[in-house]
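Quick one: sequence plus zinc ion SMILES, need structure tokens.
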Amino acid sequence: MKKEKRYYQIRIDYFWLSILAVIIVISIIIAYYASAHEQTSSQLVSTKHRADIDVTFDDLRSSLENTSECYLCGNAEESLMSYFRNFDTIGLISLNDWYVIDFPLKNYDENGNEVESATSTSFLSGNTGEISYSSDGTPSRGMASIDVTLLENYEIDTNMLEDHLCQNCLSKVAASLEYRKTDGENKEAIPLCIVDFKTLEIYSLQDYWRAYFVRDYYVEMDFDDNIVRTEVFYLPERI
Ligand SMILES: [Zn+2]
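Reply:
Sure thing.
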């Protein structure tokens, strides 16, 4: 009698154990499907996030009749390029008002001739209405920087570029303005670029860039809302 009762009790234990096992198996299956579903939806989100759009300016057409007045390659009085073209260095252009700032990497006199000078650091700052900027440089070290603060709601003035650049220069500037944004994002091209005074090539200052070489000048850039910080180092190749 005593033995029988014990047998019965073991059966009860087995019964509850099996129930518990079934519950565990079901929970595992549910957890597996739940995580699989979660993965699928996070994949969907990241696919959506990757829907980037490249905004281009290939359709800009020059309306400048006298190409000798081109702001980049010509001699327009409003542009400082005819002065800076004597420089071996590089600069930054605020495109909406074509304000050219040079990186003080070498010392030049008022005629644009390079002069040797003792160790010194130069500072310059200003406000053009379109941008406020500050530049500093140590020519003896071959390093310089320019920080630019743009207007709160900046927007590139393409009419201004079409009016004052020849088609060749306009195409170079237009190519540098290409930028990337997420579908639906409210984002504009940054109205700045880097210019090589020697070759008149134009380099992008859009926010997907971090660094590049312009001849022997290494340019680094950093973007923070409407502030663009650029640093340049003269790094000639070792021969
Ligand atoms: Zn031109």
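The mean pLDDT is 88. The CA atoms of residues 127 and 133 lie 6 Å apart.
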